[in-house]
Amino acid sequence: MQLQNILNFLLDDHAISDFGESTLDIESYESLHAKTDALCSACGGDPATWENASLAQLQPKLDFLLAHYDIEFDDSDLDPDSLVTVEAKLTELYNAHPNN
User: Fold this and answer.
1) CB-based contacts of 92, cutoff 8 Å, min separation 6
2) What is the pLDDT of residues 58-73, one digit of tens each?
3) 3-state helix, strand, coil in the chain (%, to 5)
4) C-alpha–C-alpha distance, residues 8 and 16, integer Å
């Protein structure tokens, strides 16, 4: 499943719709960060404390969301700068939601 589709599902599931998406390039890391920041905020996180420049900097946000849903995920053998890692974590979050 495409990363943006998973994020959009998770945002819809949390009734999040207003986070400045219209100004973002959907293919950019900035878009991934903005959507993940919105999810973290909805789950009690403070995305202002996390960096937003790279895929590796997306990992703490995804780890926060996984922990929020009590999902254990071992990423020790995965590259933090890889879209494969991001997709694996987002897929776990997607699968944990009963509305999928």
Assistant:
1) 66, 71, 73
2) 999 999 999 999 999 9
3) 60, 0, 40
4) 9
Q: Hey, what are 94's tokens?
A: 């997607």
User: What's the predicted TM-score (pTM) here?
Assistant: 0.88
CA distance 51 to 61: 10
What CA–CA distance (Å, rounded) separates 20 from 92? 25
E-assigned strand segments in 1-100: none
Whole-angstrom distance, CA of residue 99 vs CA of residue 58: 24
Distance of CA 40 to the CA centre of its chain: 8
pLDDT one-digit tens code per residue, 10-23: 998 888 887 666 67
